[in-house]
Recover the amino acids of this structure.
């Protein structure tokens, strides 16, 4: 099969032919229909996060179709559509797994990091961690490339949103793939969205307003109202003190990315007043089920730029440069 392979951190992905993966009895063999591009892939590509093995096939927002009878033992017909998320496997018996927090399992294996992912024509995935996806029919919003970004950007963003509790005024720092989905969920839930982008990103601010944000500006600006909570999606530690200053007493700041540059020191008064600062890590299967059930009720619309598999490196390059609104998706 063809795959875009990471040979070493800092090196461009290389399109090559590698052996077809062979599923274990627990795994499904899938033909990849679409694979979303996540900032985590960029962190792995750039060496800011350590790859589980090299060479590695990135990609953990996979929409695929079950192949070759591998779904039989799992009640899935040949050709059934499934989604493969970041959480690829957990131990099932540690204190985290046993308390509904499998996202924190120390032995967890992650798709496109510890096990090969979806920047390829085929992949294998543990059936217990895949989400069945109803067939999309003709509806554009349910097409493979539109569903793929829901599988990380959407559902980890959703976990971050839940951490904001009942916040009415919600700030989103970094208006990319995750924020453009979570803004729609937040508006659907009756919240006010305040969108913060990079300096001078007028296009991103206009996009946020189109999706229902009541205000959009630059990260260094103070919003017109004090926020109840802020979610930080951009990998920029300097946003943490800015966000803390933008939230009201009792408000929370949630860091939703897996990697961030160092957080500069800030005066204790910025945290004082029962403000909270926390991170969100990974996802549980329950998060995925809840979010995928919610998505059609919003209904969520993903803004997608598609790239052929051979252009995976360009997709990462464009993500780094903020060249598109919404999400990038590879289609083999
Ligand atoms: Zn565990
Ligand atoms: Zn991701």
């Amino acid at each position: 099969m063809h795959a875009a392979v990471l040979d070493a951190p800092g090196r461009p992905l290389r399109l090559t032919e590698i052996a077809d993966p062979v599923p274990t009895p627990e795994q499904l063999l899938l033909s990849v229909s679409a694979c979303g591009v996540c900032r985590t892939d960029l962190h792995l590509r750039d060496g800011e996060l350590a790859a589980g093995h090299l060479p590695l096939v990135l990609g953990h927002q996979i929409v695929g179709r079950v192949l070759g009878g591998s779904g039989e033992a799992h009640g899935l017909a040949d050709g059934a559509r499934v989604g493969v998320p970041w959480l690829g496997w957990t131990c099932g018996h540690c204190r985290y797994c046993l308390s509904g927090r499998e996202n924190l399992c120390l032995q967890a294996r992650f798709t496109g990091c510890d096990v090969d992912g979806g920047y390829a024509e085929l992949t294998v995935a543990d059936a217990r961690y895949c989400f069945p996806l109803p067939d999309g029919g003709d509806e554009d919003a349910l097409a493979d490339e539109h569903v793929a970004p829901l599988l990380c950007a959407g559902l980890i963003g959703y976990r971050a949103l839940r951490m904001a509790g009942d916040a009415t005024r919600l700030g989103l720092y970094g208006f990319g793939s995750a924020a453009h989905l979570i803004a729609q969920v937040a508006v659907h839930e009756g919240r006010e969205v305040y969108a913060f982008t990079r300096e001078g990103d007028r296009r991103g601010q206009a996009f946020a307003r189109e999706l229902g944000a009541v205000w959009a500006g630059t990260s260094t600006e103070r919003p017109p109202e004090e926020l109840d909570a802020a979610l930080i999606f951009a990998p920029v530690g300097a946003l943490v003190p800015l966000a803390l200053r933008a939230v009201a007493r009792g408000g929370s700041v949630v860091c939703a990315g897996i990697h961030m540059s160092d957080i500069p020191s800030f005066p204790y008064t910025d945290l004082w007043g029962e403000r909270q600062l926390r991170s969100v890590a990974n996802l549980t299967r329950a998060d995925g089920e809840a979010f995928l059930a919610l998505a059609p009720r919003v209904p969520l619309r993903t803004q997608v730029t598609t790239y052929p598999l051979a252009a995976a490196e360009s997709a990462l390059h464009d993500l780094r440069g903020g060249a598109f609104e919404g999400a990038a998706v590879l289609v083999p």
About this structure: The chain has two domains: 2-151+283-331, 154-279.
